[in-house]
Each structure stands twice: as C-alpha cells, then as structure tokens.
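stage 2 :: seqdesign
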C-alpha cells in the first residue's frame, strides 16, 4: 500500500467518524427532565412521527378482552338430543300400549300408567310437555303417532346439524315447524304440540371453546399491535401547565425526549451503524469502479470537503424546514469533475446520510433525488460545457415541480404548497450558485479542471499558446489539427471531447525549449540534427515531454494536462533516430543499440482521453510527413499506427476497447475527409 492510498483510507475513516458525530448531534432531540406526576412548564410537540406505544397497547388489550366468545357444535350433545327424542317417543309409545285391555276395551288402570309416564319423563328430562300436549300424543291414531315420531326425530337430526345455542334453538325449531306445515298440511293440527315437545326435550348443542376464544383474543391483540397508533409530526404532546400522565410520559420516551446516557449511546450506535453501512456501499462502488480513482490527493480532499459541507449545513438548516435541499452543492461539483454517474452516486449516498437530520421525511428524499439526477446530468456533460443559467434554473424548476406533485398526492393546503415550493426553489438555487462560485477555488487548490476552466484555457490569448504560435508555428498548427482529431475521436467513444481538444493545444508545449529541432518548425531547410550525434538528437527530441511538464506546472496548468503531456508519447521511441542509429552501428560493425536508450521517459496513457490524444498526435504527424491526400491511404496508415501502439503495449491502461478504436478510426477519417475536400474554382 502506497502513501497516497494510506492517506485516503485514513481520511475516509476520519470523515465517516465526523459524519457520524454530526448526524448524531443533529438527530438527537432535546431532553426533558420530567416524570409521571410532574408539571410541564412548556408546550412539547412531536418533532417527528412516532408510534404511540401506550395507546397502541391500550387498544390492543381492549381488543383482546372484548372479543366475542367462540362456541362450537358438540357432536356428543347433538347425538344426545337425538337419543332423548327417541326416548321421549319410546316412553309415550309404551304408555299408549296400555291404553286398551286385552279385550280391546279401555284399560281400567289407564290413569296409573299415565301418572307413571309423567314420573318417568320428569326423571329423564328437565322440562316436560304440558298435559294437553301429552294427551294429544297419547290419543292420536297409531299412524299419526308413527308419522309424528318419525318427523320429530328427523327434525331433531336436522336442527342438530347446525351449531345452535340457547338463543337460536327456539328459532330453529320454529323454522322447521313452518317447513313441516308447508310440506304436510294434513298433519298441521299436530304442529303446535310437536313444537312444544321439541322445545322441551331439545337442548343447545353449542359449547364454549376456550382455546379458540383465547386464540381469537391473541389475534385481535396482534392485529392492533401490527397496525400501531401513530402520532404525526407537529402534534402537541404536552401543554404548558399539564400534569404529566403515564400516557404523556410514554410518548416522551417513544420520542426519546426522556433520555439517559444509555439512551444516548443507543442512538449513537444506531446512527453509526446506519452511516457505516452507507459508507461501505459507497466505498465498494468506487473500489469496484476504479481502485485508483483519486491519484491526486488534492482532488480527493476536495471531494471529501464538498461531501461534508452540506451535512454540516443540514445540522442547522433542517430545523427550519424538511425540504431545504443542500445536497446539490456536492452534485454540481462532483458531477463536473468526476462525471455524471459518480456525482449522482456520491450525492445520493450523502442525502441518505443526511436523512436522519430530516427525520426520514419522504418528501425530502423524493425531491432531493429528483434534483440530484437533473443537476448531475447537466453538470456532468462532457461533450460541451454546461450553461450556468441552465444548471441553476433547470434543477430548481424540477425540484419545485416535485414538491407540487408530492403535495398534490397528499392533498395539503395552499399555504403548504407555497411554503414548500419557495423554500425548495430558494435552497436549490443558492446551493448551485454557491457550488459554481466555489469551483474556481476548488480548481486553484486541487488543480482539477472544469468546462469553464477549459474554455478559459482555450483562448488564443493564453501566454503559452501565444508563444507556441510565435516561436513554434509548425507545432502550433500540428496541435490544432491534433485537437480536431482528438475532439472527434473522444466524441465518438463517449470520452470528454472538450478536455481532449483543449489538452491537445498544450500537449507539445515542451517543444518551445528547442523549437528548431523539430521538423515542423524548420522553414529554411536547415536541420540542426544533421550536425549532432544521434543520441544527442534523441535526448533533445525525447526531452520535450519533460520540458512540457515543467512548463505546464510553471504556468499552473491543471494536473490532468500535465498527465497528457507526460503520457502522449508513452514509452515509445523515435523510430527515425533509432533506425538511423541501427544503420550507423551496422556500418561501424557494432551490435544494434538498445531501444530502451531511445525511449521517452514518460508513462503509457492512463485514460481514454490520454490515449486518444496519443493516437491523434501520432497519426497527424505521420500523415503530414507522408503528405497523404487519399482517404483510403490515410485510413490504412491510421490502422497501421494504432496496431503499432497495441503491439508496444501503449494502450493497456487506457480503457479503450477494439470497438472504441474502430470508432476512432472512422472519426479521424471524417476529419480528414472534411479537411481534404476539393473546393470549386472561382472565376478570375
């Protein structure tokens, strides 16, 4: 692990700890020294929505204890009722058998048998029919008795198929008797007596099920617990002068307004776990994306500072409103210097870290994400610089529309519409204006480059470009053509076209140290290399990358430009001088020289932009040197030169794919096709 990586890890851990403390400080509510029975000296409101555990428990217990008892049908009682009905008719039949003597005359002791029947019925059943009803069943014809016995037992079986209690039994009997009268009108004269018998003999077959009742009570309890009573933010919990009840005290505990040191530690632990999880997710994204995303520690420090600033601001601004959007400060800066995707990811993570400060308000997170996406998309454009007005106005309009749509769903008042829209719009505008204003300071200390800075550097009045135009006009012309090629190639593969164009203007500024030693600046036919040893010529030629780095830093060019200057020749060597040295060695009978003695002392391209400029520089020089005018020949040479870079492992770290290289070839062809087109001949 190098020093830079260790510093990044240390600063990252320190930043996470600082964010945890900031969020804990801003999230932790004010504590009150109150207890049950004490008197509050101020109004206390819910600073966030919360679950009222006291009221929830009260309603859950109430629901459990007011659940209706559950009765189930008893098979045993149902069978017993059928048996009782059969026994009743059996006793009646036995008495009927003694009504006549063996001679067919009325039995003299009939009344004794009737009294014995009544005694037996009284011993078997709790309730017995009245004398009139018994007489009807004793005196009816045998066929009628048999029919009534059959129907009495069958009605009993039908009624006992249902779950009947004391209240429903009588109604069930009446319903069955009504059906009996409809189906057997010839026996309807006996229906009243049959009803009396059924109501006396039958008993409910429904029994209380304690287990089912207890289970129903538990389900009712859990149903309330699972849908707890919630209290909305802003609800008054206690008024000044109120005596604190158990309910009020529990609400203060639920809101963590009654705290001890243990409570604070629990809050801190929850916040720490929340922030650490988000931090791990963010670090995993950037490590997976690029392990060396921040090679320059100044850029890393810039991102860390701009990440923490909105969180610090939210600690104090969140008390004013839940929809003050400050995360767009980071979005505008990070998207400008790191790109749209990285800027959006960083900003969303930051917004989630700030969410506890806004009491996890859903409107805040919705509006913030909309603003982040819109701001990141505009600020992260690579094909052209953003317009400051569009960067300010478009996110503001998007966020205000988001606020309006959100409030429309929840049907808030007109005052809430206006207040939310104004606060959101103002906070978004101020956040982005502050970010734009800070960018020059960011560029000063971090040496990163924004689109605005690129446009400034591209002006012809730049001192280095002036010198290049006056002292090395051939190199200046070469650089302009390289810029056109690099711009076109970058646009074709989705790289930063504006950066490629402007960086190309400066890629050969090292030649200002010895302009006449480069053929494009030799106009009088004199070549100083003709009188110099080959190795000395090589040292002058290859030194222009180191000289360029020195000049770039002297004139405070961005570090990204310095890398382009250092990498635009990679670790290749000037083929002309190497082959010249080989020829000289062959003529002198010496072994071929080592190619490493001829190489540029730079690094291979570390980005798409750097590789594109390298290819553009090589192709422009070769095509100009060979004075090619045919597009097909130009294409062949471009492909040959790119293959040479691949064979020399110059594009290994560039991130360019073979598909990208094909797009670059076609883009370069279009540039040359436009440059070499024929004009019509104007008349004299």
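stage 2 :: out
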């Amino acid at each position: 692990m190098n020093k830079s990586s260790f510093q990044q890890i240390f600063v990252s851990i320190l930043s996470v700890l600082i964010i945890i403390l900031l969020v804990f400080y801003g999230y932790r509510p004010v504590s009150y020294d109150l207890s049950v029975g004490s008197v509050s000296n101020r109004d206390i409101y819910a600073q966030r929505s919360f679950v009222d555990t006291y009221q929830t428990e009260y309603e859950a217990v109430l629901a459990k204890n007011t659940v209706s008892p559950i009765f189930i049908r008893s098979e045993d009682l149902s069978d017993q009722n059928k048996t009782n009905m059969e026994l009743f008719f059996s006793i009646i039949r036995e008495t009927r058998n003694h009504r006549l003597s063996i001679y067919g005359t009325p039995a003299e002791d009939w009344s004794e048998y009737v009294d014995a029947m009544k005694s037996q019925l009284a011993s078997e059943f709790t309730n017995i029919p009245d004398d009139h009803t018994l007489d009807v069943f004793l005196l009816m014809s045998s066929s009628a008795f048999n029919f009534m016995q059959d129907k009495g037992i069958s009605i009993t079986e039908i009624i006992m198929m249902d779950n009947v209690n004391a209240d429903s039994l009588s109604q069930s009997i009446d319903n069955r008797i009504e059906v009996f009268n409809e189906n057997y009108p010839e026996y309807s004269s006996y229906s009243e007596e049959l009803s009396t018998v059924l109501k006396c003999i039958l008993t409910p077959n429904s029994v209380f099920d304690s287990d089912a009742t207890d289970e129903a009570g538990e389900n009712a309890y859990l149903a309330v617990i699972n849908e707890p009573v919630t209290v909305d933010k802003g609800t008054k919990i206690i008024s000044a002068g109120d005596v604190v009840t158990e309910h009020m005290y529990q609400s203060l505990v639920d809101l963590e307004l009654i705290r001890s040191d243990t409570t604070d530690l629990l809050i801190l632990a929850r916040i720490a776990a929340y922030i650490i999880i988000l931090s791990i997710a963010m670090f995993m994204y950037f490590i997976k994306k690029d392990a060396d995303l921040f090679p320059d520690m100044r850029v890393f420090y810039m991102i860390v500072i701009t990440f923490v600033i909105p969180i610090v601001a939210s600690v104090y601004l969140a008390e004013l409103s839940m929809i003050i959007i400050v995360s767009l400060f980071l979005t505008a800066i990070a998207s400008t210097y790191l790109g749209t995707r990285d800027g959006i990811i960083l900003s969303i993570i930051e917004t989630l870290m700030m969410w506890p400060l806004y009491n996890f308000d859903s409107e805040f997170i919705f509006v913030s994400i909309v603003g982040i996406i819109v701001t990141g998309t505009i600020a992260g454009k690579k094909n052209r610089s953003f317009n400051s007005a569009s960067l300010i106005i478009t996110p503001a309009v998007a966020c205000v529309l988001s606020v309006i749509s959100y409030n429309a769903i929840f049907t808030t008042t007109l005052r809430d519409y206006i207040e939310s829209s104004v606060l959101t719009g103002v906070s978004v505008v101020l956040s982005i204006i502050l970010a734009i204003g800070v960018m020059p300071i960011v560029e000063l200390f971090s040496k990163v480059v924004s689109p605005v800075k690129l446009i400034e550097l591209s002006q012809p009045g730049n001192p280095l470009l002036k010198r290049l135009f006056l002292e090395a006009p051939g190199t200046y012309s070469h650089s302009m053509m390289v810029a056109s090629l690099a711009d076109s190639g970058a646009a074709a593969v989705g790289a930063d076209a504006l950066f490629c164009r402007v960086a190309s203007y400066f890629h050969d500024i090292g030649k200002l140290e010895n302009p006449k030693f480069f053929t494009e600046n030799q106009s009088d036919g004199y070549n100083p290399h003709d009188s110099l040893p080959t190795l000395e010529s090589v040292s002058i030629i290859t030194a222009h990358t180191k000289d360029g780095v020195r000049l770039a830093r002297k004139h405070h060019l961005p570090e990204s430009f310095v890398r382009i200057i250092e990498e635009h020749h990679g670790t290749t060597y000037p083929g002309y001088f190497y082959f010249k040295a080989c020829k000289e060695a062959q003529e002198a009978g010496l072994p071929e020289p080592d190619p490493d003695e001829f190489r540029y002392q730079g690094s291979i391209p570390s980005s798409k932009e750097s590789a594109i400029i390298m290819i553009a520089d090589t192709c422009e020089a070769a095509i100009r040197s060979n004075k090619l005018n045919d597009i097909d020949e130009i294409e062949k040479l471009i492909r040959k030169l790119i293959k040479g870079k691949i064979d020399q492992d110059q594009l290994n770290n560039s991130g360019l794919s073979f598909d990208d290289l094909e797009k670059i070839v076609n883009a370069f062809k279009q540039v040359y096709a436009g440059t070499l087109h024929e004009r019509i001949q104007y008349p004299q």
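stage 3 :: structure notes
- Residues 460-675 form a domain with the Hypothetical protein af1432 fold (CATH 1.10.3210).
- DSSP finds 27 helices and six strands in the chain.
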